């Protein structure tokens, strides 16, 4: 992984994630260069959030000038990057008014990008036991009649706007629609309504599938599901108990996330992508200790042997957040007859967590795999 901030995994991984989402190296360097040399053992996340907010607002100011000049698409592209920069800063801000304000700015900028670019996506609202779950449907191109669709879940700290930036037209250009979702413990449900994650993710997934079955442009007999990072738990868990799902991909293999967190906290790991507040916040607990107890339910040990649908697990050889051995354990336990494990190596690139160091080969591989399973 490229360490823009030497010996600082958390900030450097966020830097790479922003590049993966469409940020540009020049803008990031101009906006973050003054933070280089920060003490990795005493990170100033206030300065971090302010730097990203300044970068976002610079893009918004330039977008306004583009609009004055009559260039709405140029403005839309800038607003899309502004949304990424707001979201990147927001990830390190603890829950509270400042975090909520930063998140709203990310949503506003994304909305302007949708309007001005214009992005060919549809905002959807899915009724579920956890309340309304929002998402964006990216419709397939070049299909006659209803198209297959892949539900795309985020993980521990990735919102639907970033998911869109990760995937954009990758599925659309293959004749597959993609539904990127904010789900329990993620995005709007967590930030605006305090909805924590839940171990039985088949419950919200059933609601999403129910919704997809109402759409005439979706072939409900060809629904796939994928998840990135912690989504590597959400998607396989969902498919195991929701048999209307026909194929599942884990962009990052998860095995026993409770044990992963036990090790992280016990060693005070320096290779965690977000501050420690994230676990109790997502788990819906008051304390870290309560969060560590609750997260023990996030395990696939007894789940994956029951999985029957085709399964793809994509992992990095040098993943320092979730060890590669977990991907092997998940693969070996899976009951699917059709199962594939793809480990990206250091030599070829894409060896870091969810291939944030070199994401496109994994992104293309996953989409091609779904094409072959959702025919």
TrEMBL record:
<protein>
    <submittedName>
        <fullName>Prolyl oligopeptidase family serine peptidase</fullName>
    </submittedName>
</protein>
<dbReference type="InterPro" id="IPR029058">
    <property type="entry name" value="AB_hydrolase_fold"/>
</dbReference>
<dbReference type="InterPro" id="IPR050261">
    <property type="entry name" value="FrsA_esterase"/>
</dbReference>
<feature type="domain" description="Peptidase S9 prolyl oligopeptidase catalytic">
    <location>
        <begin position="206"/>
        <end position="348"/>
    </location>
</feature>
<comment type="similarity">
    <text>Belongs to the AB hydrolase superfamily.</text>
</comment>
<dbReference type="InterPro" id="IPR001375">
    <property type="entry name" value="Peptidase_S9_cat"/>
</dbReference>
<dbReference type="Pfam" id="PF00326">
    <property type="entry name" value="Peptidase_S9"/>
</dbReference>
